[in-house]
Write a structure and sequence with these properties.
single chain, 229 residues, alpha/beta, Rossmann fold, 7-stranded mixed sheet, elongated
Length: 229
């Protein structure tokens, strides 16, 4: 009997669902390696590079690869982001479980990230607003974005590729992206962003920053309209 699949949390399950079938994968910051192992066991990917900046997590990943019998399909590699990853080594890239600032840094490491054929599955633990602004400014189009609740916290997962001609900006986009309020997780994400915007608006009121207060009020209204569609 073969080994069972590794158990993924809701957050990584959503990331895995965004990976295309029959591709080569790079899991940046792989940690325990469960995401590429899960996809390899499913037969969804051809091959994967599981990278991490630290040797400790990669040792754990290597042990898991042996445990689940996928060492021939998944290679481990020490790399700071994608610095040690070649353009031709992967089609889909998962960058999950790290802050938005670090994701932006990684996306700035190589010019080939703007290859339109590459798909980037991004899951920021913080600063999603700043990450979306970076993506807009650098020509990345969000093909899909969904919210997910994992361990009682709500997160977003984005599927993006370089396609500046497809980008259009709308009020509220930096706060909620392409997330719809048609699920428990989506509603929770909207509520979190609305609460954050209300705090920013109140801060602007106290500081007598009229322009900022009006901007935050307009963003709140735009999100509330989308929430009620």
């Amino acid at each position: 009997m073969g080994c069972p699949f590794p158990k993924l949390g809701e957050r990584l399950q959503l990331c895995a669902s965004f990976v295309r079938s029959g591709v080569r994968l790079c899991d940046v910051g792989t940690d325990h390696g469960y995401l590429p192992i899960f996809l390899a066991k499913q037969g969804k990917i051809l091959y994967a590079v599981a990278s991490d900046i630290r040797s400790g997590p990669l040792q754990n990943a290597q042990e898991n690869l042996s445990r689940y019998h996928v060492s021939d399909l998944v290679e481990t590699r020490i790399s700071d982001g994608i610095l040690k990853i070649g353009e031709d080594e992967a089609d889909d890239f998962v960058i999950a479980g790290m802050g938005g600032e670090l994701i932006m840094k990684i996306l700035s490491q190589k010019s080939w990230v703007k290859n339109p054929q590459k798909h980037w599955i991004l899951q920021p633990m913080s600063k999603a607003f700043e990450l979306r602004a970076f993506l807009f400014e650098n020509g990345f189009f969000t093909q899909q974005e969904k919210a997910v609740i994992d361990d009682k916290k709500v997160y977003s997962v984005m599927l993006v590729s370089y396609a500046p001609e497809k980008i259009s900006r709308h009020p509220g986009d930096l706060y909620i992206g392409q997330i719809c309020a048609d699920s428990e997780a989506g509603k929770a994400y909207y509520q979190k962003e609305l609460e954050d915007l209300a705090k920013r608006r109140n801060g602007a009121m106290i500081s007598h920053k009229k322009a900022d207060e009006e901007r935050y009020a307009a963003e709140i209204l735009a999100i509330q309209k989308l929430e009620n569609l």
